[in-house]
Amino acid sequence: MADDLLSSVKRSFNRVLPAAWRSDTPVVPVVRLSGAIGMPGLLRPSLTLATAARPLAKAFAVKRAPAVALVINSPGGSPVQSHLIHQRIRALAIETDKHVFAFVEDVAASGGYMLACAADEIICDPSSILGSIGVISAGFGFEGLIEKMGIERRVHTAGTRKGMLDPFQKEDPADVERLEAIQREIHASFVALVKARRGDALSGDDETLFSGEFWAGTQALGLGLADGMGDLRSVLRARYGANVRTPLVQAGGLFGRRGGVLLEGGLGAGVGAGLADGLLSAAEDRSLWSRYGR
């Protein structure tokens, strides 16, 4: 009798509350994971565990939310930061027993796809780019340039391999072999993670799936790299009802309040170095995106 009365009071109370405050309104918090991973630059925040941890914790802390939605748009970057964010998402999902959706916008490639694999379902657009399950290391060789300019390179090390892969010296085959061994090890870990998360959903052969190739959404769906096509609003409305709320959780708090931007370094003597570093980081960032036609 008391339970019936309590339920009746709760229903009456819910009817006079704004929809955002009603306990019977489905809520699926949304966290955006966008940009190059682990590549900070001047005036440009980077996607790392440090920047993602707080909004992820806030999203999974919403007790009445049956799920959390991740909106992913990343060409990849640091394998370490990608894995750390992936692990944090999985740990929170297990602790709170919440379903996780990943909605891919333009790109979820390389480390960006590793983030998507933290979800229980990956949803993409037909024109999204997914995959690039591989490891890459790129740089430049300047030894001919400094010789032409009459510049003498002086390097002093303690440790016979400390100067390996110096861009101002000729490549040593032994150094390249060592780098490729490290890449193979990281690649094997990436492959194992994708297989563990995607399981029987994968329908392509290993040579194709893990070659570093990437695909448009329709092809990715056929290979089992995604589970469906759609967008956040339509998918969540179909799953949880037309009145489902999808508040955006950011570092500053729930419902879209933004936190401050931390600018590393100071003014004065450090400006020139910071600007040069920022330009280089921006070039690296742009090269990542341009691989996928973005």
Short description:
The chain has helices spanning 2-16, 49-60, 79-96, 111-116, 143-148, 173-198, 206-209, 217-223, 232-240, 271-290, and strands at residues 30-34, 67-74, 99-109, 121-124, 129-131, 214-216, 228-229. With 294 residues, it is of the alpha/beta class. It has a domain at 25-135 and 200-290: 2-enoyl-CoA Hydratase, Chain A, domain 1, CATH 3.90.226.
Walk me through the structure.
The protein has helices spanning 2-16, 49-60, 79-96, 111-116, 143-148, 173-198, 206-209, 217-223, 232-240, 271-290, and strands at residues 30-34, 67-74, 99-109, 121-124, 129-131, 214-216, 228-229. The chain has 294 residues and is α/β, with parallel strands linked by helices. The chain has a domain at 25-135 and 200-290: 2-enoyl-CoA Hydratase, Chain A, domain 1. Strands 1, 2, 3, 4, 5, 6 and 7 form a seven-stranded mixed β-sheet that branches. Helix 2 runs parallel beside helix 3.
